[in-house]
Backbone:
């Protein structure tokens, strides 16, 4: 269980017992979290999507602790609701037990977004192929998660669809390959692209963001989650169902300001972040692409990469 591999039935049972008790340690890239879940159904959903991940058996430093619990017996058995505790001044609204995995994912997002001060965080997808690290910053709804997932199931190594992590000292991108958060129409798109239902969580309907489903990254990406990559490209995607595919190069100045805008902790890191993003925008080519389908987006990305080579 100490490395990202398929788990046996006995290993999954052991993890379930740990999750039900003091918690199981989940390590994803540079971050370790002790996760405890009081609901059997949520543990089942969690292990379905995280079964290939790394659960260290040796003692190690824990960055975060996340607990999913019921506030009282009524919310445990009569009208079950999952409440999360991140130990980080959170005030999350409890969710129905049937949406419990969303609570886990929200809590882990919160801990990284507000607790990580060692890496510059981008609200971005990140993938890598042939030594080319690609950052895909975008606002919600622009298609970054779908594009990141699509590329990862088309020969690219998946780093993240939510948090790009840049070490300001080395200038390297570090993987944080959590499950991909797919929403609404993108769910059917990725199920048709991946063609393997076992990689997907159940679909959670009527959430504040519509229907949500989680996609497990390729196992090879999990096995290589300790391998950083040098950023070479930044591509800002714009999904428009009525668009004609297009691509335009961004100036270095515009590239810098867009990276700053997409960073969650630029102000916290300060001067080191300014220097790192200045260097990144100078060394990387930056583009904006507009597309109407995943196939068009991937074709545009691959064409940019071929021209870069």
Residues:
């Amino acid at each position: 269980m100490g490395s990202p591999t398929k788990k046996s039935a006995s290993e999954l049972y052991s993890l379930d017992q740990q999750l039900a008790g003091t918690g199981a340690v989940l390590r994803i890239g540079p971050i370790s979290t002790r996760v405890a879940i009081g609901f059997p159904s949520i543990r089942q959903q969690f292990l379905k999507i995280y079964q290939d991940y790394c659960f260290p058996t040796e003692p190690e430093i824990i960055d975060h602790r996340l607990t999913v619990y019921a506030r009282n017996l009524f919310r445990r058995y009569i009208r079950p609701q999952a409440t999360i505790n991140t130990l980080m001044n959170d005030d999350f609204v409890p969710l129905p037990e049937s949406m419990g995995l969303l609570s886990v994912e929200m809590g882990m997002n919160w801990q990284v977004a507000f607790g990580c001060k060692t890496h510059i965080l981008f609200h971005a997808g990140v993938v890598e192929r042939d030594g080319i690290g690609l950052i895909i910053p975008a606002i919600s709804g622009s298609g970054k998660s779908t594009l990141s997932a699509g590329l990862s199931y088309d020969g690219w190594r998946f780093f993240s669809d939510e948090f790009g992590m840049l070490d300001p000292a080395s200038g390297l991108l570090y993987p944080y390959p959590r499950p991909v958060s797919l929403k609404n129409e993108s769910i059917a798109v990725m199920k048709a692209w991946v063609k393997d239902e076992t990689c997907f969580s159940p679909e959670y309907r009527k959430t504040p963001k519509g229907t949500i489903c989680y996609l497990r990254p390729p196992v090879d990406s999990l096995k290589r989650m300790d391998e950083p990559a040098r950023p070479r490209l930044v591509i800002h995607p714009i999904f428009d169902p009525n668009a004609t595919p297009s691509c335009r190069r961004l100036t270095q100045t515009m590239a810098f300001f867009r990276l700053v805008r997409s960073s969650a902790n630029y102000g916290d890191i300060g001067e080191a972040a300014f220097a790192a993003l200045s260097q990144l925008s100078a060394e990387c080519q930056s583009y904006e692409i507009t597309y109407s389908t995943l196939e068009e987006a991937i074709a545009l990305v691959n064409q940019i990469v071929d021209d870069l080579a």
